[in-house]
Amino acid sequence: DAPVEKYEYQAEVSRLMDLIVNSLYSNKEVFLRELISNASDALDKLRFLSVTEPDLLEGASELDIRIQTDQENGIITLMDSGIGMTHQELVDSLGTIAHSGTAKFLKALKDSKDSGSDSNLIGQFGVGFYSAFLVADKVVVSTKSSKSDKQYVWEGEANSSSYIIREETDPEKFIHRGTSIKLHLKCDEKGFAHPERIERLVKNYSQFVSFPIYTWQEKGYTKEVEVDEDPAEAKKDGADDTVEKKKKTKKIVEKYWDWELTNETQPIWLRNPKEVTTEQYNEFYKKTFNEYLEPLASSHFTTEGEVEFRSILYVPAITPMGKEDIVNPKTKNIRLYVKRVFISDDFDGELFPRYLSFVKGVVDSNDLPLNVSREILQESRIVRIMRKRLVRKAFDMILGISVSENREDYEKFWDNFGKHLKLGCIEDRENHKRLAPLLRFFSSQSEEEMISLDEYVENMKPDQKDIYYIAADSVTSAKNTPFLERLYEKDLEVLFLVDPIDEVAVTNLKSYKEKNFVDISKEDLDIGDKNEEKEKEMKQEFGHICDWMKKRLGDKVASVQISNRLKTSPCVLVSGKFGWSANMERLMKSQTV
Ligand code: ADP
Ligand code: MG
């Protein structure tokens, strides 16, 4: 017999197992969702590899998941014909936590502290493979990788800090390829080993799995059999022995067990959008991306003609946990399929500009080759067209949130992703027209609630030509600047750009609806009340004071001028027409130090 090797779990796993076994009491049924999702991932991986290595499927071309229950002994067995695990993969995968969903769960758990909500959390996040221990006190995994000619058995028990691995040597137990997971249910959980219960759970949790899931079900068919007539009946008829025995037909139900297809395997994005409800889209989102909040918006579309693809896109309700890097996002937010085969979730950057990296979704193309690589994507004309359409759809979706009656939704969106759109103003000139209406700013007439550029334009004075702004580090400092005095007096609205990136974004836009953005802190501000006659007079009268001040200040200032822009303050420092604004200057400094 092959030797049995004993391994200790990584500390985090032990902690998680302890939690799962000893303190989570509700929502236990999620174990099935997690195990099915692993099986589906394993099948995805194999299908993907088999595109270039068809030999991998040899001998067992069916890609499916089968679940069998043994009610008497309280055992559930889940089998997949997926990629399987090598010895090393077993150790790496089922003894450590590599997986983002589980890490998210542990973090949320830490954040919540309120242990009462643990069981809720587990339902929201799932804890992957280890959730088997919600219902089982012993789990036996038997797996045969397509890369190895050996089959291995992993065995773990609840309340143990170690697990064992051994090679399978019993030919009776050999599987061709894939993984079988046997759950020995805890005494109180044996009810899960009921075929109908499993069927119900599969229907409930796995409507988006694109591989067939079969469950082992008892079936029956009725058949008619001929039986001899009851002799008592025959007597009544006065018949005697010489009469031929009367025959009668009777219906009986013949019972047998067989595999039954339990899920619908058509991916949701292939369905007719008219037949899919918002709830279904949201469910798909939550399951696919391991999210627990509903998305803010979704969009399901098909494009035909030159380039054919289907897609469902989503705007999440929050930024991912932890600090997100919008400059170099590593998001895995877009799942790329080619002809329904999952290819990768690593190509976000090829399908979306990085400032839209927060958009999540699936894209299924009929025109790309199955062995598509990053290099192919980067050079493909098809991808360029797809990218354009995807971006447009993303904008439509965001615009949809911005015009919805529920103002709060857009506030949420802006809180989370406003920065991304501003980055877009800098990086994506082509889409300025789509980006600008989505921007939001505080203003001198709206210090509490942000306004859109459309709202600004609507509120412009009849003879006002420009959109005024002042950049500052906060609303308070913006509204106290002396530059505002005259504009307040004339009731002109001024945008307060208080986010460091605002000013760069606005200078990139240059104008909105043919109205230029004008920085009120720059020299030569014209607010439409120039009186040249009077200016001339003033210059003559006070010109020598200006000269004297310039002499005293020397190189500290570029020039000293008489201004008509002040109301109560005696003087103000402005920046030159072509130079950095004071705010930019401050930003540049903070970046070079
Ligand atoms: P995740 O699925 O998020 O990676 P899990 O805890 O659910 O986390 O699974 C851990 C790892 O175990 C998987 O990433 C995979 O490598 C491996 N694994 C689990 N179940 C299977 C399976 N049925 N076939 C192949 N590998 C599996
Ligand atoms: Mg998993």
Description:
This protein is α+β, with helices and mostly antiparallel strands and 593 residues long. 35% of the residues lie in helices and 22% in strands. The chain is built from 19 helices and 20 strands. Strand 19 (511-512) and strand 20 form a beta hairpin. Helix 4 runs antiparallel to helix 5 and helix 11 (381-403) runs antiparallel to helix 12. The longest helix is centred in the first third of the chain and has 23 residues, at 30-52. The protein starts with a strand and ends with a helix. The model has no long low-confidence stretch (mean pLDDT 87).
Got a strand count?
20
Mean pLDDT: 87
The percent of residues in helical segments reads 25-40%
Ligands and ions found: adenosine-5'-diphosphate, magnesium ion
- Rg: 35 Å
The outline comes out as elongated
Q: Which band does the percent of strand residues land in? A: 15-25%
**What are the segments in which pLDDT stays under 50 over at least 5 consecutive residues?**
none
Number of DSSP helical runs: 19
How far apart the termini lie comes to 67 Å
Question: Structural class given helices, strands, pairing?
Answer: alpha+beta
The biggest beta sheet, please? Answer: 9 strands, mixed
Write the layout of secondary structure elements.
Elements: E1 4-8, H1 11-23, H2 30-52, E2 65-70, E3 75-80, H3 87-93, H4 100-112, H5 118-125, E4 136-144, E5 151-157, E6 162-167, E7 178-185, H6 195-205, E8 213-228, H7 231-236, E9 247-261, H8 278-289, E10 297-303, E11 309-315, E12 334-338, E13 341-344, H9 348-351, E14 360-365, H10 374-379, H11 381-403, H12 407-427, H13 432-435, E15 441-443, E16 446-451, H14 453-458, E17 467-471, H15 475-479, H16 485-489, E18 494-497, H17 500-509, E19 511-512, E20 515-519, H18 532-553, H19 582-592
Parallel strand pairs: 2-8, 12-14, 17-18, 17-20
Antiparallel strand pairs: 1-6, 2-3, 3-7, 4-5, 4-7, 5-6, 8-9, 10-11, 11-14, 12-13, 15-16, 15-18, 19-20
Helix pairs in contact: 4-5, 11-12, 12-17
